[in-house]
Specification:
Helix content: 25-40%
Mean pLDDT: 97
Distance between the termini: 55 Å
Strand order of the largest sheet: 5-4-3-6-7
CATH superfamily of the largest domain: Aconitase, domain 3
CATH class of the largest domain: Alpha Beta
Structural class: alpha/beta
Number of helices: 16
Strand content: 15-25%
Bound molecules: 3-isopropylmalic acid, iron/sulfur cluster
Number of domains: 2
Oligomer: single chain
Amino acid sequence: MANASRNDARTLFDKVWDAHVVSDLEGGGVLLYIDRHLVHEVTSPQAFDGLREKGRPVRRPDLTFATVDHNVPTDGRAIDESTLSGQQLAALSRNAQEFGIPLFGYDDRRQGIVHIIGPQLGLTLPGLTIVCGDSHTSTHGAFGALGFGIGTTEVEHVLATQTLRAPKRPKTLAIETTGRLGHGVTAKDIILAIIRKLGAAGATGYVAEYRGEAIRALSMAGRMTICNMSIEMGARAGMVAPDDITFEYIQAEERPYAPKGSAFEEMVSYARQLPSDEGATFDRTEHLDVGSLKPQVSWGTTPAMTVDIDGAIPEPQDAAEKRAQMYMGLTPGTPVGDLDINTVFIGSCTNARIEDLRQAAAVIKGRQVASGVRAMVVPGSAAVRAQAEQEGLDQVFQNAGFEWHRAGCSMCLGMNGDILRPQQRSASTSNRPYEGRQGPGSRTHLVSPLTAAATALTGRLTDPRSLI
Ligand SMILES: CC(C)[C@H](C(=O)O)[C@@H](O)C(=O)O
Ligand code: SF4
């Protein structure tokens, strides 16, 4: 009996995956049922065109939700329909209307970055499969959902069938954390440290489950920050087992799509079965003690090229690191704290929730942005923006010299025209410091909202622990 129960032990991932298998595919793999399909304007136009050509409707418009995020202007500029950005926005409006899908458009108070609004509206729930034509769909795993990005061809398949062909079952990776975060060190620093340790492709083929006391102690915002960046080490998805913190978040009054009353109770009792069973085996296990963790900052062109905030640019270990240092304009041995920053960007689906804005505001309150530094806050959703304004955070930021923007992806990838000039250096709360991502020639350093705020005040990459 003991043996039998040990063999039956399953991980969180196994349970969610197994519960969604519709059938086996010929030649291997399975057909997976999809509970939520989130759609944005960049990866959906060809998918809708495909449906139109074949004369197919959207199978479950009630499980499909669209928003505009990547291309929306955040600085008050009008949408210009002569640009590719404007055309993608217009196409999504037309497609949503034609196919009967709810769209949280530019002026809707539910609008925002797709991975911020799913949880916020109560669409993201434990045990669901959630897909979107966007790699950071891993964010939703913070709820014990299986969320992952899909390509545009798959977007069309999910629109048409509400299922996804999954040729390969991912392997499982346990990331065991111990210790308690020190003052001024955050979830962003945990995930940067994990990626630094495992490498930018270190979790390819795996679904990561973040476990242990350091994860259990995090708010949902922190857990989302961590799951969000799972893809930055190649993981197919990241997950955290649901617990009371999860249920409290879902129960908050302002989540229109969350289950209520007995439906909520049912959801909770289902979710309580989901955590990995004792004795469940993972294909691989990694460990991180966060007790001595310092704020992290990326120096290179992948999130794995990261050091402690009080560290220095390392000697390049390979051609990729050498190239990254050339691109970033860095010499080995330079203390990170000596690097001058032109722009501070607080935003993105990694770190633009109300908790992130509150943390940053607490650092800058009553202080001033260093002269010559452009500092901007781009809330992750219209609702985050409204909440921040209700709390007076917009005033705190603006009094300090920050720009206060509308919600969207903005300078995370610069599709909407919010970009750096060539060779300008940013401290950014986003998730990818790739070449050219924040504009041609842009140099991005990934940091937490606390570190971004401290950096805005000094104009140099700054340890927030010196200011709080
Ligand atoms: C535009 C979209 C396909 C892309 C992604 O998939 O991640 C973007 O959101 C990003 O962060 O680079
Ligand atoms: S905020 Fe950045 S990472 Fe997130 S969806 Fe938008 S572009 Fe992608």
